[in-house]
Specification:
The chain has one domain: TIM Barrel, CATH 3.20.20. Helix content is 38%, strand content 17%. Strand 4, helix 4 and strand 5 form a beta-alpha-beta unit. It is globular, with a radius of gyration of 17 Å. 46% of the residues are buried.
Length: 266
């Protein structure tokens, strides 16, 4: 058994009414649990509805690329859902310096709003007794990652964070883990030229990382280019087990333990 620790089952890229089939295909493939993430206020209810299935939990947050659309009190509105038993984390939140500032915003102000929202997500997680799922992305370098790590450092010991879709050098992953956080590996880690992600996956201590698809995006080899879905987590697990010279059972044992601890999955 493995868990897809990061997917977007309410995405418009999935057909309406298809979620039950997607969950069943995952279950049949050995992916017995899924964490589906809301990225704006408008899709919280859809994700919570999916989490009525015992195999699914939901995380709620405002994606950094959507902070300009979100009202100033968006995180306060998230707080009204944080006590729902179906909610297992706060996020997806984070910092995205890859996409340009939207119309009407300059780069400096847009990035500041992202940082302010990320800080507010951490505050909410601390108050709710939950952990945080973080997105970072840069055109080059690792500025967004380092800025997110700096904000995380203010909450380390009170809140844990997972830096999802980890594709950076091991040195950055090591900093996250040193703070008590986790990283998670998805489809990119199976790509032929993903040398940094593969090296990090091989070097991460057992219990310090999770597996994910980020579906419907970034399908792994050997289904790269297709629409991604949680069932494809098994391809990622198989590739990472080989990288780590572990059996699939051994890999599943410690990644599932990491999921249980981070998401407090009963």
């Amino acid at each position: 058994m493995i868990t897809d620790s990061h997917c977007h089952l309410a995405s418009a890229r999935f057909n309406e009414g298809e979620a039950a089939e997607i969950i069943s295909r995952a279950d049949a493939a050995g992916v017995k649990r899924m964490v589906t993430l809301a990225t704006c206020l408008e899709d919280i209810e859809a994700n919570l509805e999916l989490a009525r299935d015992a195999r699914v939990k939901a995380a709620i947050g405002i994606h950094p690329c959507d902070v300009h659309n979100a009202p100033d009190d968006a995180v306060a509105r998230l707080a009204t859902f944080a006590g729902d038993a179906r909610v297992c984390a706060i996020g997806e939140t984070g910092l995205d310096y890859f996409h340009p500032a939207p119309e009407g915003w300059d780069e400096m102000n847009f990035r500041k709003r992202q940082r302010d929202f990320l800080t507010s997500h951490f505050e909410l997680a601390r108050d709710a007794g939950l952990n945080v799922v973080i997105h970072t992305r840069d055109k080059e370098g690792s500025r967004s990652f380092e800025d997110a790590l700096e904000i995380y450092s203010c909450f380390s010991g009170k809140v844990r964070a997972v830096f999802h879709c980890f594709i950076s050098d091991w040195e950055l992953g090591e900093k996250v883990i040193a703070m008590g956080g986790l990283v998670s590996f998805g489809g990119v880690s199976t790509f032929k030229n993903a040398h940094a992600a593969k090296d990090a996956a091989a070097r991460c201590p057992a219990g310090s990382f999770m597996l994910e698809t980020d579906s419907p995006y970034l399908a792994p080899e050997p289904v790269r280019g297709k629409r991604n879905e949680p069932a494809f987590s098994m391809h990622i697990a198989e590739r990472i087990a080989i990288l780590r010279e572990e059996t699939l059972r051994e890999l599943a044992a410690h990644t599932e333990s990491a999921v249980d601890g981070f998401f407090r999955w009963p």
